[in-house]
């Protein structure tokens, strides 16, 4: 500090070199520039903000948020949603037996069916979800237990999966494909939906299993090793199936476009949920014609191939049917939240207005000494 | 060897040294530990990959490193400029030009202007080997006389380049600029050396063609020994900030501990039921898992530590300092000097000053002296401006009676008075503009105008023209003026009579007068009533006839004292007694422009103004003149100050008393007492003190706390030691009320906001822990955490710190000085407000997490989309919190947001994912931002998060409307 001060002082004039250089030119005035930036007079909008302009802002926010909230709320209310718990934890449930017997290594699939009634017809496309609760898909150990390179079609990762996959990395000295805990715990219940005519005939409702994954996931993030044209069974030769799976990854679907790592059920499962209780898209029921609703009013049965054990962690399994709107599925909270925040803004505006009228003017004159 | 090396680094040492210095900061150490933890092979600990901490840390380290490097290169450049200057060195009977760096101790140099080292003056080309040096870089007086020893002068002046056998012995190198002891051995004779024979480095030869000197100290020279002693000043805000940082570390530890406990419960109760989790964690015991979770959360919460805060803090300080230098209102066109912030670390304290300690002469006054009146032989010759035949302009004083008295023969008192003025001084006849003291210059000038013209001086004689008659006086002794002493000259006049002339402050002279001194009463009356009323500066002039015997005895004693101890004050006292009063001079020192108004404004602002000055009567009158004093103000004298230093409890009581006082005037203080007063205030109050002065006698005071130096007439010494330099006292008003207030406000807002932004963003992890089994899962993508502080949110907060002037404009700040109380009362950066900031950041983090949670629990949205939603809301919340919207703020916000979207787009690109799927595993940009639900949630979350601050701001606006 002092040392630099000393040398700076030396440069000020006493050094022959420095003074010579300064003396040669015309002595430049040290007067600062008169610019808005340097004089700190940049144009700004804040000073014109007074109580008269700030208070309306609160009303404006309120007046924008409340209609948005009402709109969202109405939209949400128009969305039809049906939810049924098929865990079978209850003695009375048709799936009670299945739930008690199911475990990861049970070989015989257990089947059960649950009847339900839709009171209102579901127009337009209907999304079918499965829901799990208490399943910590966002637990850090779980989230990390995957190999994105392997899933991306990297051949060396296929044979030699990442250490992150431990202890689901190898099985019988063969690399597991797909490795890791997430893949291993793939949701493997099969859900089928039947419409019961008033005359008693069961009609299976066609469920679309493609189009449920994100485009980027299906085409970028997940790729089968060796491209799409090869025979998947040869590609995956020398790998083991995840220990909990009943079939290999290349046997997930007959459709080559939906098999292996790019099986959409698999992709959806691999996109981990944010919260311990979550739902995932399972199937899409497409609208057939304009005349009939996608799911008419009436009785239905849900046929379940019950494989997935949840009772060990007190989990619940649900099937959800929902129509969708521009804002997605049914979401009563968002609309209410908008209405609440909008009302709070409005209320604050009123309070501030009262304060302004009661105290503002008085302080205006008292606070500033002349 | 005389190579100056003020630079610190070489190519090899730069990296290790710079890193060593930087890791002295606790924050950097903390982050280094985090990085080390992250590099640990235990995957359970490194909740975030290494680059999340490494990249910001490297950024901070490299910015800092480059700054240090640039400073060091500048030092190197200046060093080499100094080192490469030429000088003439005696080698083999002739002088050759060498560079400064090659000079060694014992070398004989030929000097023209600058001194490269501390030198022993051997001889000069001037008569009697006199030489004159300008010492304005070292102390107060400008020109000083140095003289070679008679013996070297005589031996060497005939043939200056003859090398001789010289031996000298001197004291160890030290930093005392005004003392030197040494012995020169020359042909078996010992000659004592003192400071009068020494040319110090940093002084400049004047009025002397060539001087020859022997090098005594090179790198040990006294001025270099004086360098590098200033302690680095830190501000109160910075000290509070350091405490806050420690507080954050503790808070992070606490959170990590609680979350680790939660993890223990989860691992014991829930995890065993979930097959995958049970299998994954099977290797570890629950206690070990808890331990790992603790460290995992330490890492995860580490972004709440504002790593880059210190470096940004510095940057903001530098910009604020530049603003001070750029201010046209602080620029003095007369002397072409803008204000200058020499220290760039103290800006916000300018807005918190409670005590202003000011010097009087040259600070409150112009220090342009005008001889107004005199009182000779009890007769007062008052001011009369109507008649002025002298064209010089320096003398505005004139009185017909006085001129008449002077011309009339037989008025010895008056003549003696002016003779004394013409003789008792150290002014150089040839250097009218460079007198040692402005007072003396004025007095000699006055004597000249009235007929006593000082013509020339040699080493031992002075020549006057007395009303046209040329007379030469033999100079026997000349005692320099110091702040504690007076000036004395002993002369032998042409008739052979010995006389002692003495001049000094009234109190000093009056107590040394002969008992039967005449005119004493009338002079004192003049002093009391007339001079002090007019704010005039007075000096008493006295004479004593000295007996030949007394002189011989005294001069021998003086010589003896100089040989042995050097302490000769008692001897001086012995000589300076039995004086006869000749008269009193009165010099007017006008108040600077705007001083009363400035002091009045500062007092309205709640600043307690203390004036510390060397004299008394004048000080009081100046105090009244500049509206410092009201009737009934307390006066404090130097003698009383000594007591405070001796008795600590008295000092405490004094400060307690002075808190009740609006203004304090300390009279008759010495420079060290001035510093003592500053120390006293700092010791017993926690208030910010500012000292302002212009001369070398104020340096101690200025060094004590925030120092302001005025570019005055008394040399650059005060400015060299000050933190801020101004051209005029009244600039202080804008410096404090506008720049200081703004700096304090901006820095407080900036720091609080910075803490808010980092902690609100990091605390989200705490709430998320409750939903993910306390597993240490990060809420955000790791790249987002890495770039959040560095890229996404840094520019708006930086702009806030530079442009914020939300509440009152510059004019408003000056019009309502009471607004300054904001900083004095620490109303913007105190524990209470910081606690509020933390509560608000916790509120924000709650909103940032739980609002999206509540929205998304009804939908099939995945973790990555959820994460992007929270991250976007977090960026929006952090960037829009600006109250003062200049175009730079808007640009910064637009830039930050575009950077966020651009960077996210790139980091989520399919290409990067294909290259390194493990590092770029987020691939959610397209889907997330295509969803209206995400946007609606971001809008709702952002609005809810900023609503309290918006409402608080509106409330303030409603209660205190800004007036433009």
From TrEMBL, chain A:
Annotated stretches, region: Disordered: 1-31, 146-171
Protein localization: Apical cell membrane; Cytoplasmic vesicle, Secretory vesicle membrane; Golgi apparatus; Membrane
GO terms classed as biological process: phospholipid translocation
Signal sequence extent: none
Its membrane topology: Multi-pass membrane protein
Xref: InterPro entries: CDC50/LEM3_fam (IPR005045)
Biased composition (Polar residues): 150-160
Biased composition (Low complexity): 17-27
Regions that span the bilayer: 48-74, 333-355
Keywords for this protein: Cell membrane, Cytoplasmic vesicle, Disulfide bond, Glycoprotein, Golgi apparatus, Lipid transport, Membrane, Transmembrane, Transmembrane helix, Transport
Matching Pfam families: CDC50
Stretches with biased composition (Basic and acidic residues): 161-171
GO cellular component: apical plasma membrane; endoplasmic reticulum; Golgi apparatus; transport vesicle membrane
Keyword Transcription regulation applies: no
Homology family: Belongs to the CDC50/LEM3 family.
Protein name: Cell cycle control protein
Organism: Paramormyrops kingsleyae
Top-level taxonomy: Eukaryota, Metazoa, Chordata, Craniata, Vertebrata
UniProtKB/TrEMBL annotation, chain B:
InterPro entries cross-referenced by the UniProt entry: ATPase_P-typ_cyto_dom_N, ATPase_P-typ_P_site, ATPase_P-typ_TM_dom_sf, ATPase_P-typ_transduc_dom_A_sf, HAD-like_sf, HAD_sf, P-type_ATPase_IV, P-type_ATPase_N
Subcellular location: Membrane
Domain of life: Eukaryota
Top-level EC class as recorded in UniProt: translocase
Binding site for ATP: 359-361, 440, 481, 503, 537, 613-615, 668, 674, 697-698
GO CC list: plasma membrane; trans-Golgi network
PROSITE patterns: ATPASE_E1_E2
Swiss-Prot/TrEMBL catalytic activity: ATP + H2O + phospholipidSide 1 = ADP + phosphate + phospholipidSide 2
Residue ranges of domain P-type ATPase N-terminal in the record: 1-54
Membrane topology: Multi-pass membrane protein
Keyword Membrane included in the entry's annotation: yes
A GO biological-process term: Golgi organization
Family from the record: Belongs to the cation transport ATPase (P-type) (TC 3.A.3) family. Type IV subfamily.
Protein name: Phospholipid-transporting ATPase
